[in-house]
Structure formats: C-alpha cells, structure tokens
Amino acid sequence: xxxxxxxxxxxxxxxxxxxDLGKKKKPSNQNRIKxxxxxxxxxxxxxxxxxxxxxxxxxxxxxxxxxxxxxxxxSPMTSLLPLVFVIAVTAAKQxxxxxxxxxxxxxxxxxxxxxxxxxxxxxxxxQDVAPGDLVVVEKDCDVPCDLVLLRTTDPHGKCFITTANxxxxxxxxxxxxxxxxxxxxxQDMHKLGMIECExxxxxxxxxNGKIELKGGEGRVLPLSAENVLLRGSRVKNTExxxxxxxxxxxxxxxxxxxxxxxxxNSSSExxxxxxxxxxxxxxxxxxxxxxxxKRYNELFVIPKLTYLGDATDSYSVKQFLQDxxxxxxxxxxxxxxxxxVTIELQRVIGGFFMEWDMxxxxxxxxxxxxxxxxxxxxxxxxxxxxxxxxTGTLTKNEMNFQQCSIAGRKFHFKKTRLEEEETHALLDxxxxxxxxxxxxxxxxxxxxxxxxxxSLEEADASSSTTTKxxxxxxxxKSGPPEMYSISDITEESxxxxxxxxxxxxxxxxxxxxVHPNGAAAAATTTTSSSSDVxxxxxxxxxxxxERRKRPQVVKRSPNFARPANRVHIAPTxxxxxxxxxxxGGGSSSPSNGAAGLQQATHSPNIRPISLQFQRSxxxxxxxxxxxxxxxxxxGHRRAHSYGAPNAYLSNPxxxxxxSTSAIFRSPSTHSRESYAAPTFTRQPTILxxxxxxxxxxxxxxxIFTLDYQASSPDEKALVEACANLGLVYTGDDDEILSVRxxxxxxxxxxxxxxxKPKEEKFHRLHVLEFTSDRKRMSVIVRDAEGxxxxxxxxxxxxxxxxxxxxxxxxxxxxxHHISDFARLGLRTLAxxxxxxxxxxxxxxxxxxxxxxxxxxxxxxxxxxxxxKIESNLDLLGATAVEDALQDDVADTLVSLQAAxxxxxxxxxxxxxxALNIALACGHIPPDAKKYFIIECKNREDMLLxxxxxxxxxxxxxxxxxxxxxxxxxxxxxxxxVAKEFRDVAVKCTAVLCCRLSPLQKSEVVxxxxxxxxxxxxxxxxxxxxxxxxxxxxxxxxGIMGREGRQAARCADFAFAKFCxxxxxxxxxxxxxxxxxxxxxxxxxxxxxxFMGIMFLFQFHTLFSSSSVYDSLFLTLYNVIYTSxxxxxxxxxxxxxxxxxxxxxxxxxxxxxDNKQLHWPYFxxxxxxxxxxxxxxxxxxxxxxxxxxxxxxxxxTAAFSCFGTLLIWGVVIVVNLKLWLESMxxxxxxxxxxxxxxxxxxxxxxxxxxxxxxxxxxxxxxxNNLLASLPVWLWVLLVSVACLVPDFTIRMxxxxxxxxxxxIFPGKQRKLKLREKFESTYL
Length: 1322
Known about the structure:
- The chain crosses the membrane at residues 271-293, 324-343, 1079-1099, 1111-1132, 1159-1181, 1193-1216, 1228-1250, 1270-1289.
- Keywords: ATP-binding, Magnesium, Membrane, Metal-binding, Nucleotide-binding, Translocase, Transmembrane, Transmembrane helix.
- Helix 21 (808-823) packs parallel to helix 25 and helix 34 runs antiparallel to helix 38 (1227-1248).
- Helix content is 43%, strand content 15%.
- The protein is α+β, with helices and mostly antiparallel strands.
C-alpha cells in the first residue's frame, strides 16, 4: 500500500489524513475493485490453460499435434477444426462474462467520492481512495471502503446505516464515534493521530484496533466493530459522516467475503469420466488389434498377392509409429470432443429456465430464483438427504409474542392485556403488580432496538393533524352507525377470558358471511377488531407494505399523548369516498374491520381467514408429559400462513361457537349485539367498546409510526408487545432511554380527557452484545433514582446458571413453564436482573477498559469481564414467542419424503420446541416412533442408545422411526462414535438435531458425505449461521429471508420461499437429470455408430488405415450434423408433465443415484450403436458388392459414393434414433432434426460440386446419389431396419409395463435384497 500504511507485528498503522508526501504523486487505484478473471494480456494463455485441463480437450490437442507430425490418413483439419470450434465457443462465453464484470467494476470504480486531504475537500474517483484518507459520506450514499467513524452530524455521535448489500438485513444499525474522541476543526482532522488495527479478515462483525492521539493528549482510544463503516453499507437518517479509510480495494471485508470458491462437481461427471475411460481403453484395444492384424497381413497375406509387388523386408520404429498412430488418429472420434461444450451450454440455458420460472418467483418481494452454480443443475434430481435449518427456513422468522412466565405464574398475551392462565383474570397495566411491571420494564429496555429518526415527531405531528381534520370527518359522516365485533362487546366482561382467539376469528368470519344484506352490506363495515388478534403482529406482509405506502392518520386518547384529541370511527357507506381521500389514494383504513375481511376474501394479495385443524399431541411423546398443563395448550393458536394446512393447532370448537344468528340483529337497526353481552344498557356498552377500540387503534397506529428497527425479529416482537400493553419505548436520546407509560384501558366512568402519559427515563451505560457463544445479551442502566441495574435476556440454559441461589425455586417453576412453551413450538427467552453497586461498577469499568485496549484476545478478555458482572442475577421470568410456519411447508416436506428424500432438521432450538414444529410441519410423521438421545455424555451411553435404536429400526417392520438428539449428545457422537451414529441415523425416516452450533451443522453434513453409500446431500438455510452447512453439502440452497442474504450469496441456488424447494427438486431436478442422461448417452452412441463403420471397413481394406469418410464429414459430424437436435432436446425434454411430477413425487426416485447413467443403460446404448453400424455398413457393402450399377446414368458407383452413402445413412439414423428416444415432441424440435439432415445434404452438395482435390475425390458423387432411385430405397430400408428393434422394445415396455433392465442385479437391487433379508431373518 505504498508509503501510506506501515505494517508492524502483523498490525496495520495508518496515519489519519495520510502522510505528507509533499510534491510526490498521490498513490492511485488502491481502492480499485476487480472481479474479473482475465486481462487483455492474460486472457489467451490463462483461458487456454484452463480449457486444456479437461481430458477431452487435451486428448484432441495431442491428436492434432500427432496428425501434423506423421503421414496422417485423414486431414489434420479433421481434429483441428472441431477443437478450435469448441475452444473458441467456450472462450467467447467466458470472455463475454468477464467483459460484463469489467464494465460493472468500472461503474463502481469511477463513482465520485468526496475526501478531505490536508484540510481541503476534493472529489476524486472511488478507485483513488487510499488508506488514511478522510472520506465524506452523505445521507443515502454507499460507503466506498471500510472506514473508521470520526465525525457525524448526529449530536450524540451516532451514525445509522443499513447493511442490505452485506448481509441482506434492511433494519437500521447504529454505529458510534469512538468515545472520548476530541472534536477538532475539519482542517485539523488529519493531525488527530495514528490508527493501529488488525489485518483485514472476513468476519463482518469484528474489528480490533485503537487510535493513538497526537500532541498533548497522548491517549489511546479502543476501536471495535461499532466504530467501523464497512464497504457496501449505506448511511441512513444521518446527514453526513466523516471516516478514515483503513481497508480499501480488494482487502475490504466485503470483497474478502465475495471471494467464495465453489469447487463442487456434479455426481454425473463421475459417470461421464468412467464412460470416457472405458471408451479410451476400447480405443487403445481397437488400435492395437488393428495394428497386429495389419502386421499379420503384411507378413503372411500381402506376399501371396503378387500384383501388389514385393513386401518390404525392413521394419523400423518410424514405421511402427506411423502405423500405430495412424490408427489412433483414425479412431480418435470415439472420444466426443463436443460433449463438454454441449453439456456446458445445456447447463447454462437450463439455469436461465429456472430463473425464468414464474412458479419460483415471489411477487411480494420481487425475487426470482437465482442460479449461482449451473453445473449442479442435474444434481437437484439426485438428492438423497436434505439438511434443513428451522428458523427462517421452515418458519417465517416473523415473531409474535404469545405467552410469558412472571414470578412463577403463567400468562397469555391478549393484545393490550394479560390473561392469567389459572384464574383467567384479565390484567392491564393499571392492575400490574410489582413483579409484572418490572418484567415488562426489563423487556422495554433490555434490547438494541432503534426508533427510526423523526418517527416519534411524526407520530406527534400526525396526532395534531388528525385533530384539525376531525370536524370535517365528523361533518361528512352519515349512514348507519358503526357495527362492532362481538369481541368488542364482550371484552369488558369476564366472559371474554373464556373465549379463545380462534373462536373470535371464526365469529368475525361468520359475521361477514351471514350479513342479512349480503356482501354489499358487509362492505360498508369498516372497523371490526378482535380483542385477541393483534393487528400489529399479524403475519401479513402485504398488509405491512400497503400500510407503509399511505400516510399515517394517528389519533390518540387523552392519556396517550395530548389532551383534547378525539378519535372518530372511520365513516361508512355514503362517506367512503371522503374518508378514502383523507387516508391518501385508494387505500382503506388500516383497522381490522369487516370491510377489511371482505377485501381479504376477494383480493389476491390478502389472505383469507384460515380453517380449523386438529392440534398435534406432540407433548405425549415427551418425558414430562404428566407435568404439562393441558390448559395452556388448549387455546393456543399458531399464526400459520393463511390457506396452508394445519393453520391452527387447536381442537375444533365449533360446539362453543355462538350461532350466526347471534352475530347480527335485524337489518333495520344497522347495529350488532351479542346475547353474551353484559347486562347493562346498550348506550354505555357502545361507548365503552368504542373507547376500547379507539385506544387499541391509536396504540397500533402509534407503534406503526415509531417504526421499530431491530437486529432480530424476537427483539422487535417483545418491544411491540410491551408497547401494546402500555410500556411504549420511544427511542433513546444520547443513551437516555425513554419509556412512555400509556394505560391502554381506563375505567369507562372516568372522563376520557383526564390523564397524561407518564415517561420513565433510563441512562444506558453499557450494552453487552449478544453472540452465538454467549447466547445472551445484557444492558447496564441507571434509573431516575441513580441506581444501576443489569438486565440480562437470553437462552434459559445460559441465563439460569447465572441466577442467584435465592431464585432456585423460581428457576424450577420457570423451567417447567418454558418446557410447556416449547411443547407448543414457541421460542423462549429467560429474563433476569440485579442491582450493581458503585464499587463493583468501577471495577467493571476498569477491567473493560483494559480488555478493550488490548489488541490480542480482546474478545476473550471482554467476555470474561462480562461474565463477572452477569452473575447472581434475580430471575424475573421468561417469554414465549411464536415463529409462524412458512407457506405450504407441510405439503413440501411430505412430498419430499414421498420422493425418497430423508430430511434432517438441524436447529439451535430446544428439543421440545423443535419437536412441536417438526410434527406441525410434517417433518416427523405423526405415527412415527420417536427415539430421544438427550444429555448423553460418554461413548458407552451413546453406543447403548445407538444399539437400541438400531434394533427398533430393524424389528419395527413397516414402522417409521424418528431420531431426536441434542447438541451435547451429538458432540459425543461426532467425536467418539461417528461411523456408528451415521450408519444408524441414516436408517431413520427423519432426524431432528437440536441445540447445534453452525460448526456442528457442517460436521453433520460432512459425516453423511463420508458414507460408503455415496449419498447426495443438499442443505437449505436462510441465515449466516447456515453458510458452513450450505457450502459443505453437495448442493447448497439458500432462502432470501429476513436474516439476510449471506446464505443466498453462498448457495448454489436461492429463492424466496421454502415451498419452492418442492418444484425445484421434483420438477427441475427430475428434468435436468433426464436431460443430461440422454445427452451423455446419445453422444457416446452416435460416435460409436460413426466409428463402428470405420472399424468394419478396415477388415475389407487389408487394415490399410485408410478412411472410409471424407475429411469434411469427419470435421462436421459432431459440429453440424448431430449437435443441434440433442442440444435442443437436452434443454426441453419432459418425460412427464410438470403437474404430474408435482402430484406424484414418487417419480423422483426414477432418477436418483444417476440410475439412467448406470452401466446397463450405457451398455444398451452401445449395443444399439453396434447394431446400427453393422446394418448401415453391410447393407451398403452388399449393395455395392452384388451390383454397383446404382446410378441413374447406368454407371458403376465410385468409392467416393460408398463413403458418402454411409455417412448419409449415419446422419439420418442417429437423428431418427434421437427422435424415437425423445418424449417431448415439439414443432421446434422436429424442425431441428429436419434442419440437421438438410444441413448435411446442403453442405455436401456444395462441397461435391467444387473440385478441390484436397482429400478424397467426391466430385459430383453426392449429386449422383441424389439422382439414384435405388439409393433412396436403400436409405429407407436402412432406416427401417435400424430402428424397428428400438421401436419394438419401446412399445413392449409401454404395452406390457416391463421395467428397464430388471434382469441386471445392480447396486440398488442388491441393497433392497439385503434390506429384505435383514428385516426378515435378523
């Protein structure tokens, strides 16, 4: 890096502002990005070197060189021209791709960047930024290189960025100017000091360095990842920032992560190489045989033929090489030179077809399928074992807060209230006791959630705006009064606590369908909300997108924001147009009303209400079933995708659902009452429920306007739940956290205008970040009274050991509750806190400062410091958050299992949580035996488990078996008994591995790959923690999900939804396997036919090594005569329709293990090739031998006519053979067959009318054949004689349903016989 960067002890030292180089020219191109493989100078040698690494290309290169050195029986051009064509096509393709990369690089490298050099601003090209430069980045601009943040326009030294280009996450992240960095003028910033940092690494989330300040300061400030802006991130909500460039060009973290090497090869290439080796050995054998036969004739036959003259007495080495190599060149076309280039073209075009498939396109996110590695297309049809992540892959990673455990008591979340499980009492924030208030206070401040800049002011401003517009809305309102949901009426009564969420949803559905006035009347209803269905956390992406597009009309209750604010219900019927204009455009009110439901029924973008399904009884399979509380499971509702199976995991409750007649009164009243309503007058009831609904709506709108940005959906769900309950986190101001206390429900007897929101302030002192090793995060805050507290939130297995002994009883109760939550498939977190003394805090600060100033083992030292402060905690409780299942995930998994694919789910969740999800999504069949290996700590116990499981599998004939193992037990299995575990586990129908680290995931995949059974594996995931697993598997599949795009970037294939995997494997995988098999086998077939005739011809020419074909035919046979039809059918062949493949997943098994590339298929094609060669040659030989007066002019045919007739027959037969083998016949395909045959005829006619006298003399030979009627009859007879056996066998197979090659005891048949024997006799 020139003189701007020095390296000491493997650490970089960078002068802020760069060193003063005087009049020397500033270094350039230090920030240049280069993604190209070649340059103008290196393209030709480097590309040729890459291509000649292929055996076939190298073989033909050697053959060309040999043909130039000896007296070749054919023109050297017959080897040279096809080789040049193949090399040129491949080079042109790779060169074009490199040019596109070069152009893209230039756009990035030439983009303008503002820097400060010597205190003066200058605009330079991005490629000229050098380490030490002070770079200015403005709002909504991309960061050009890795920068250390030194200045920001934010008054608190913050900088907000998004990292969508790095990891795909669109949420805001907060960076900070280094603490205690002195503020200097711009012209003096280059005098700040020196940055010393580690060499660049691929880890996006770590950075170790320090700033050594100059002058009298002399201080050292630590630098961490929160002080670094990475290239690829974008500055948001901050007007301008200034940073010092540290890593530039190809050593930025983004570029280091972009250099992903994929050396994966398709399993089909193993069979192709085997076939090539067999053909090569056959070629050597043929050449050797013909050579010895020639020597025999020269020694014993030719001397007897006196008319040939005297035989030569001497035989030199040169003559030996001439004879032997002549045969080698003559038969080198047994190796299909154009096979590789055709396969490459077929794969690239097939990749385009997958990317263009509209069934693999996600309209909501505008994401199409991405093919990163097209040479694995056919591998999609060979998968035996699929490894899948759970969170974000089988589930949506959309979190909904459902339940919690507080001080040993379990509660259900009811939008704005808590319902205690035992007493069914409804509690709002006014009725919270100290434990409950402290618990939700912890959730409201123990996080790293950001509030989008200006959103709070926007919410306050919108409140004032709606207040001013209120009279207009009121004046325009006319028509029938508001019709309210039954839940609104019964919400204030105790009856609502006995009514499940599903019941309410079902009532709303019925209320729309049975309205006396039909759909039109239902359309007039605009506000109808269930008290138990949270509109904020509803899993509907289209809803959120639509809400973001329209301006927010936020209306508050007096106790929420400002006094004198009034809220009016959205108008109906006559005033719908006016309200639509008020809300902006054509969007309707965001409330959950009957109109919204009716819109959901008819709009394709909004899902209809789901149906009811039976809940799984997975808890019966767990050891602690007797301790579980069944009441908790009865009313739980899974927020499954609408329209998908198992939408509810709850028992049918149609018997307790009120009748539809109770939903509406008579049409004339235009109001709705419930017979279950409390016994008080109608007017107060409507006022109460109107106020209740109004307060819910304004809280929801306020939260929407705040626009929480969280690093994980779990955190966002918890903060939003607190806001719904009345603890609204409104953001931080210079680490001062603000929590607004807003009671969502007040006594209806009190005036609504009384009450003012209360705010609590907390000074956040430190954030102890979450890591995959710690499995928890903590914050240290100081409250209004000056007391310091540490709040910790994380996995219970990591938080419980940190709790004080005084919380032992509470830990036991909470652990039981967490087990109950896990059985419902909920994700759990434990919450704890304690007070910190002043002396302890000072010690913590000192140790933390020492750890941060260390450049070695900083992470380890920091975690040791964290562990000291995170001790003797007081447990507060636990949270239970639901992760909704992906669309059609159950149908996808069941179909893949029916296709013979065994599915292993590798997750970091608890066993109970993962088991419930696995049963709900169909991963584990409901009637399967479940074998648990949990907390196994030594080799002996693991062997006992594996032996017991093996007996279960062997003796449980017809019984499906599922294995469930946790991370600790798996660690023992991988290190102690890996082979035994692998052999037993692969026999199970499904395997569920829980509590795994990312490294363990990849180790499991590697273990299965090491099996002697040669399993083809695939891994699918959506997060950065799945990358190692994805790269380890034979086929890596990424989901472009909420956790980022790193998995999609590292994967071979990527798409938006898990359900698309079914089509990718069952349709595209099946098609590509069939197509490649046909392509490979046909290439060997047509070359064997071609060279088989040459072999037979040698027996009738005294093995003279002369060619029966003209050099033109040898040159164009693989390039023009037979290339186009096979390429076309190799990208369009469809043995079954797409619908049948999706409907019948068992068809997938027909191609697994590359069945159609096994030796029986190959030998059958070889036998047909030999038969066709014999028929074509001897039919022509007989015709020329018995009577060669076949020309129309009554003359005998010359030798050139014989060779031309043979190649004519070969071209017709091999093209018709391909037609016969094809299943998907289109007009374009038939056109390619016809054009290939006509191409032969046209090129031959042109060639034979030009008297070149270059090779063999075929002047006017083909024209004479075209004019001869016997020749046409011979062509017809040969075609029929060759293809009748093929046609007959195909018809017998179809008519009699004869299986292919059932007489061959292949590998799969032997395995089935062995399995049958073991299951019967062992």
